[in-house]
Structure formats: structure tokens, C-alpha cells
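ERR on first pass: missing label on line 2. Operator R.T. fixed the label and resubmitted. Corrected input:
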Amino acid sequence: MSAIRDSLPPRTLSALLLVLAVVAAPHAMRLPLWLTAVVVALGLWRLGIAWRGWPAPTRWGRVVLTLLLGAGVATAYGTVVGLDAGVALVTAMGGLKLLEMRRRRDTLVLIYLGYFLVITQFLYDQTMPMVAYLLFGVWGLTTVLIAVTRATGGDRPLAHGRLGAALVAQGLPLMVILFVLFPRVSGPLWGLPERSTAVTGLGDDLSPGGISQLSRSDAVAFRVELDDPPPAPDRRYWRGPVFTRYDGETWQAGRDRRGPVPEPRSRGRSVSYTVMLEPHAQRWLFTLDLPAAAPEDGRLGRDLTPLAEDPVHQVRRYAVRSYLEFRVQTELPPKRRQHYLALPDQGHPRARELAEGWRQQAEAPADVVERGLAHFRGDGFRYTLTPPAVADNWVDAFLFDTRAGFCGHYAGSYAFLMRAAGVPTRVVTGYLGGSLGDDGDTITVRQSDAHAWTEVWLADQGWVRIDPTSAVSPERAEEGLAGSVAAGEPVPAMARPEQSWHKTARRQLEEMDAAWNRWVLAYGPELQQRFLSRFGLGEWPRMVMGLGVALVVVGGLTAGVILVRRRPRRDAASAAFARFERKARWAGVPRRPGEGPRDFGERAAAAFPERAQALAAITESYLRLRYYGLADDGELRRLRRRIARLRLPRSRG
Amino acid sequence: MRLPRSLRAAFHRWIARRMGRQGRVIRLDYPRIYILPTRAGAAFAGMLVAMWLGSVNYSSSLGYLLTFLLAGVAFAAMHHIFRNLAGLTVTSTGTEPVFAGGVARFRVRVGDPAGRARWAIGLGCERADKVTDIPPDGSGWLTLEVPAPSRGWLGPGRFALLTRFPTGLFQAWSWLDPDWTGLVYPRPEGGAVPGPEAFAATERGGQFGEGDEDFRGLRRYQAGDPPRHLAWRLLARGQELHTKQFAGQAPSKVWLDWQALAGMENEARIARLTRWVLDAERAGHSYGLRLLEAEIHPGQGPEHRHRCLQALALMNQ
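pass 2 clean. output:
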């Protein structure tokens, strides 16, 4: 049918602008400042047009504005495709659409765009508060959608708001059914764009000061659900990215992570567990040292880094098994040995000299390893979150001058010393520790648990984990960060041992968050398959069948709730008429089953001709109320009065 | 939507069968109501598909959640729209008479027997912004415009009562074909027509007076009196509007006779008589109408005019 040509009533328009502002606000933090300013200005301009009669831009004005904004976005992002630039472009074009909003169709485009802004926000932030906030936005958008269906629009904002809330609430059961049962497809369908958002987590190299920054964050890195008894605190080394290349300043990943993967062999206990990894925008996963095999949907690098196929942008859940005592790669081919001994030609002369001395004095590589640890243990080294800054030759400066550092300093310099002394070595980063839950089968690992250590290769033993930090600060493994550095260091609250109410509250919030991650965010194809197979719906066709049945049931119930309505008026009229029926029954004229009110009235009138007029009035009044919908305000009152005044002779039979 | 003619005819027959006989008061029961997505609803569905694809691509659980929530909202909206129309009762107070060739306006009253409020109920033939709300325990009014091509009784024909409230994603409608009637007067003959006196069909020589020389007196103004006969001076003195009467303009009885127009087509005769009725009423004459099987005695005024025009409208019907 034809569209409404009049513009939106100003109140509805203002409501629409407000709701769009609400759903666009979280994006504004990521958009360039100028773009946010322009979009806000466009919104204010539109308000001015609606309320103050400001001039609207001409068609050419809009074209020029469109080109300018498009060019601005393309310049700012270097592209107009991809998520970030796409969101910026959609926001800009939405702002422009405000100015040409004349017909209802334009308004609908803006509302649908609002829904899109909500869904794109979910790609950046998946926390519960954000979801609650955006649900509020969805309610607002739906309310505006309702308001624009009425030409007179904004005259009943409260009623529309209630109806909007009802629609959203009535949509929830169906949402749950679809969420659980709608078969999930593994993505991606097209290339995932690069995402520039800063996410906390271990970096893809190890610079001396790197991890100490990370350690100030309370954020949860991942949670672990244990299937076996928990490992002792000093065995909770969570293996992450392994670095095998040193460029004179930082340790970096080897260029050949793909290659033959050595097979670990167990020499003691193994632990099975499931990790729920928070998104960190990197490709590696974390497993207890040392994974027996690659985690689900992942693989192991040849340096035994657990890896995912794609960067982890969503909460990721994977089951894995680890050997707490292990032996791996007892044979090291000469080429690999070279790789693990490589150092730059220049730099750190004093450290090289120290290592050369060890090599000459030691009888075996194991002796070198021990001498290195003894060096850290003895010579006044300090473990601190706030190491002094050093410029060039940081290894020398750290070893001989400052002697104060964090795990990055110890692991990085130790690996350098070992390589210089002829022991194949690599740096491993990850996490150490994590807090055991009250029930004893979950471990929460935070960014403040981030750690770096080394692995040295010894003939016959293979790779052996050496944690030089523990030489300086044995408490680090046992008591965590707070117990291992001096009082007064910037240790985050959750890493401190003392209890407080806000720590308890925060822990409870985090448990909710864990459940949210576990059941909502990580609900992908695998979890769906596993969850539904508990109900015998694991197979794809049965899943679809279950979905069909559930949709019919839940959809039917929802429809029933909406369609079965309360009818106060009709009930009042029926109650009054029932009293009339009682009177007629006493008088010997009961209403027959299935007899319509009109026939019944006529029969009663025939039985009592002297009351015919009153009886006809009652019937007519009732019919007007009940069937014609033509009653005015006094009709019910009149019907009651007529019935109350009706006197029928007692039954003659 | 263009369907082949035969298909469309079959479709309309099917609709007619489904609707059954409809009386004066029509109640929109469930089986009478149809519902389909609107263009906005189709666009909404398209948006959901795009959102679903995006969710698959980014493996975004919350994306799925929002997509499915909006699907649920659309589902709920469909039932709300259905409910907004279901159970309504529709009646009409009929039309004001119109002349053939004009447009008859049926006043349509919609109400809810349960006394619930309804929003934005409209007619299928009208623009969507011409809609009515039904307040709780009240009723709403709509105007159904039906072209009236020929004289006689006119029904509203089949029309749709529809709503898209709330959300506009779906349109619920019901086809109505009630037995309401409105009267359509014959179309009067246009242009210059000879007066009835030319056919010598007058009784007792009563004629339309042409003279205006001899002033006879004043009478109260009646609509249609020629302006040059108005008593402007009296009016200027603050008195009621009067018309000057002249000799030869005495209220004359004139018979407008079917038989006098022998030799003309039936419809042409009716058109001529209609014109005469209108002219005589405007000129303030007392006129009677003599038709084949009816005779209306001379009289005057809107009531009389209506009786004459109705008799003409319903001739041979």
C-alpha cells in the first residue's frame, strides 16, 4: 500500500534519535573523534529541522556531504571494507540518512540500521553489562518501530513502550529455542578482517619489561575445569607461545613453527581438563605444561606451542590432557640444535664473557644450567614489578648493574646465557599458578599470573623446564605474585592473598561471568552437538526435528499468551445476563443448551407477554454489549438496572 | 501482484465462498482474517538473514542471540497484529445520498465487543494514514468511499479492513462484503434544458412567472432565491433576510410528468425530471411528480425533494 508522506511527528523523531544515540554510543569510543562530532551535529541539525524549522539541506548538499564523509572514512581507515571501517561508514551514512528522512521507509531504514549497530557492537564487547545495555537499546528500537506504525505516532509513548517491552519479552522464549536448537554452522564464510582492538594478553614476543605491564591486570585470562585432581601450585605452568629467536633485544617466535612435532611421553601423572579461553586476538592457546597432544581444533607447533587455526576472537572452549612429568625430544638433530643455539653476533659482551667462563669450568651442560641458576640465587638479584629502565645491552645492564627485574628479565637473560654457554635453550611464556575454586575442580588464571620461563635441552633428558625466576623468588610459584615481590609493589587486588568483601563479590561476579562464557559465548557447533546429544538430539536431522517440535510448542504457547485476552467487559455483561437467566429459570423458562440470547429472549417474551417490552430491552442491551460492540458507556449500567428491576411471576409448574 | 485473469477469478470465488453471507453487522472471526508480511516485514527478514550470516562468519554467539531475539519479536508482533484486528465488529450508518457519477461515502463504525482498545485500523482502499483508533469501550469511524456510477441502491462492494499495528512488519486484513445500502440519485441532465411548461403539462395553467415588474410583497428567504430579488435594504437595517416577490411569481403548482416527455429514452427522461426537480426546488416552486406507477403530490422542501429523487432513483428497479 502507499506510504505515509508526512514527516514523522517531532516527538517520535526525537525518540528515534535518542535510541540511535544509545546504540551508537559504545561505537563512538572507537570511531575517529571528528566522525562522532559530525554525526552528533547531524542529529542536532535534524532536531532543529523538526522542532525549530531550520532549513534542511538540498539534494546537492546531501550528495556533497555523503562524498565528504565517505572520503573521510576511507582516509581514516585506509579502506571502506572490513569491520572497523564498515561500522564507521554505516554510522556516517546513518547520520546522513537522518537528513533525508521524509517517508516512513527512511525511518525504517534507520531503525534497521540501529539493530545492525547493536549486532556489530557484539563483535567488540561480549560482557553481560554490555548485553543488558544493548537489550535496552533493542527495546527502544522496537518501541520506535511501533510508534512509526501509527500515523499519529508519538501521542502514546508509554503505551508503545509497554508494548515494545511485551514484544521483546514474548520474543525471548523463541530466542532461547532457536539459540539452543538451531543448527550451528562453523564459520567463517568469508575472510575475517584484521581487528585492531587492544586486547590484554601475552604478546607475540618477549621484551624484558613486557610481562610486568600485563601483571598489573586483574582480568581473567582463562578458566579451567578439571576432570582430575588439581596439580600442585608449583606444577601449574600454563604453556603458551614459545620463543626461539633472539634479535639482541627481544625473544621472538621461530619462523618454522610448522614442522615435525616431537611426541611427549609421560613419566607420571596426567591431568584432563577443559579450558575456556577469553578472546585475546592471538593464535595461541594455553595448556598445562606439557600437553600430551594437540587441543581440540588446534595443533602443536614444533616448539610445542599450542596453536589455534585462527586468532581467538570469541570465547574458546577446548578439552586437553597434559603430562605433569614428561620427557620429550631426547634426540635433537644438528640443524635444530643450531637453531636453539643461535645468537646475534654482537651485543651483551659481559654476559658472553660470563657464559664462556661457565662453559670452560663446567663438566657437563647440566652443570652449566646449575651454575646459571646459582648466579641468580646468589648475587643480590631482586624480583620486582617495577624494574628500572635500561637502554642498550639490557642483558648486561640487568646482570651486572641493576640486578632488579621481572620474570621477562630473568627468563630472557638466562636463555641468552645458556645459549652463549652452548646449551640449546628456548623461552616459554604463559601463566604460572591460578586460583583454585572452592569446589576444587576449577582454576581461574588471571593476567597477573603471566610468567616467562625457559627450557634447556639436555642429552638423554630432552627438554627440561628451568624457571630462573624461582631461583630469585622461590615464593613466586607457591604463593603467586603478591607473595613473591616486596610489599608496596603494584600488585592487583585479586592477586593479593587477603580476603575482603569486594574480592568475594568480585569473585561471585566472575563466576557468573564464567557461566555466561561457558553456556552462552562458547555455545558453538561442538558444544551444541555435545549438549544436545545428551537428549539424543546430537545428529543433525534429529536436531532439526527437535527444533521443529520445540518451535511448535513454544510458538503455540506464545501465540496463546498473546491471543487469549482478558475480556472484563464481556464478563460483566455475561454475569448480568446470567442473573437474568436465573430469574427466568425460577419463573419456569430456563435457557436451553445452545440457545442464543436472542432466541431465549424472544421465548421469554412469549411466555410473559406482560413483560415483553422489558425482556426485549434486556436482550437488546445484552446483544449490544456482547456481540455488536456498539455499546456506549452507560449500556452495562442500564442492563444491570433492567435486570434488577425485572419481576417475573414464580413458576407455575 | 498481477495474476492471470482466470486465476484471479478463481481466487475471488474462493474468497467469496470463504466469506459466506455477510449481514449488516460483521464480526471479524479468526477464519476471516488473513495475514502476510509487508514490504517492511520482508526487509526485516532480509536483515535477519544478513545478521545470521554475519553471526556464522564471526562465530558470534551474541550475534545469534540478537538475530533469534528479533525473529521472536517478529513472531510476537505477527500475533499482536492479528489480535489487533480479530474480533472486531463492523457496521455502517449508511451514506448520505449522492448523485450518480459522484462518490458515495459509507460511514463505517468499528468496535470491539470486549471493550479492548485497538489501534490504527484502516480500510484497504484508503491511504494508510487514514486510520482510526478504537478507545477502550468505544468505537472508531472510517469513511469508505465508493464510486456511484448509476442511480438506485448502492452496496459498498467488497472491501478490506486492515491493520499493521504494531511494528508494521505484517498486514492483517479481512474482506468484507456487507449488505449495507446507500441511495444514489439519478444524474441530472446538464446544460440548458427547456422548462416543464414547454410541455404544457401543468395543471390549471400554473406557470413559472417570468415577470418581475409588479412588486407584491416579501417572504422569508429560501435557499436558491435569485440574489437580485433579495431585500438588501432590510438586511442592512439588521432584519432577517427576505426575498422580494413580484406578480407572476406566485408559488405555482407545477406537475413534472413522465408522460410529457414521451418520445425520449427512459434514462434521458429520468435525467430531465431530476433536473426539473432540482430547478423547481431551487426556484421555490411547489412541484409534484407523476411517474408511471407513482405520483407524488406537489410540495416543497428537502424532505419532498428527497422523496421525488428517491422515486426517480428507484424507477424500474
